[in-house]
Amino acid sequence: MFNDHPYFEQTFFYKQHLDMKYILFWLVLAISLGCAKPDPQVPPVAEATGKMVKLESSFERPKNIILLIGDGMGLTQISAGLYANNNRLNLEKFRIIGLHKSYSGSDLVTDSAAGATAFASGVKTYNGAIGVDMDTMPVKTILEEAEDRGLATGMVATSTIVHATPASFIAHQKNRKMYEEIAADFLDTEIDFFVGGGKKYFDRRNSDTRNLYAELEAKDYYVSDYFREDLIQCKISKGKNFAYFTADDDPLPVAQGRDYLFAASKMALAFLRGHSDNGFFLMIEGSQIDWGGHANESNYIISEMIDFDRTIGEVLKFAERDGQTLVIVTADHETGGYSILPGSRMDSLATAFTTDYHTADLIPVFAYGPGARVFGGIYENTAIYRKMKRVMGW
Ligand code: MG
Ligand code: ZN
User: What is the pLDDT of residues 376-386, one digit of tens each?
Assistant: First the structure.
């Protein structure tokens, strides 16, 4: 179904077209070099080359980027989710797959802060760092850059919105535990849409008397929360930004009733698409796959993995229809040293863990859409940032 998407046909057609152009180009070059006096009708070589490069990059350039991060989602987490879901995942629809080296600037085994800062800003930093480098100096994030360039921006997470992964795309703090400082950083970048937990870090702060919930409203955000109304009841309007808190602190695991990742992601796509003519950057995090790993609970991992994959399916549907959207799915690291043991059956997995922390495994990267092909291969986690910038032409 995905191979016969127009994008693939177009790519194929274009490649053939390009091949012909190459032949023509070399022919012209050979003729012009062979002639003592070049024909004035023949365009100069530099101009011809420049034109082809431009053609190629403009075709591959996406308008929108959606980066999906499954926190703690190593290959075993994916495998367990796949088998437990009747041997089916939306992840199977991707044709372009790579691996990234997840280690951080301080440790072979990264944490989510350093991992997300690598994706967001392209630097290897120390574990615990939120949008700062090894010397604790702020580094500009891809979300901030998108905002500067007039793209709409958004984040959806199933942790608090100030937790390490989302925080690293918008905040600059030397320690991931500085939740109130991280929350304040949300007021410094005009992110257009965000959904996640952690309301208390905005409206009941210990470190100062600011009420960031009210400050967001004053900045013309439509702000709401789980206590006031259901997410799907919120009336989003084109002129306003949107912020919604799904919990006071950490949202529940999906197995205990949390159900917003799919709905919030769908809302984000509709909202961001209509919010700017210049495209959008959206980060969606399946935050709790990692927490299942820390808890060494296989069922927790699997239910979170399937929830995340369901959202991936919806995002792919959007990208397939839209045709201008690059979708990237990856993880910051593996969690638990999770493995599937002999004696397992597809419908009953015997699993084990070697740690309650993260591991240093290579981590899969899945890509679809314009620019996707640069995500094949093995590269540093920081290369994901550079590849996103490259395909956007930034
Ligand atoms: Mg996370
Ligand atoms: Zn973790």
Answer: 999 999 999 99
Q: What is the maximum span of the chain, computed from C-alpha positions, in angstroms? A: 81
Q: Which CATH architecture has domain 45-392?
A: 3-Layer(aba) Sandwich (3.40)
Strands (E), the chain: 64-70, 96-101, 152-160, 193-197, 221-225, 241-245, 280-286, 325-330, 334-335, 339-340, 351-352, 358-359, 362-368, 377-380
Distance 178 CA to ligand 1 centre (A): 15
Q: How far apart are CA 193 and CA 238, in angstroms?
A: 11
Ligand 1 mean position, distance from CA 71 (Å)? 5
End-to-end CA distance of the chain: 32
Catalytic residue among 102, 112, 224, 276: 112
Nearest C-alpha neighbor of 243 from the set 300, 189, 297, 293: 189
> At which residue do the structure tokens 């949390």 appear?
258
pLDDT per residue as tens digits for the range 115-145: 999 999 999 999 999 999 999 999 999 999 9
Q: 112 an active-site residue?
A: yes
Give me ligand 1 centre to Cα 256, in Å.
19
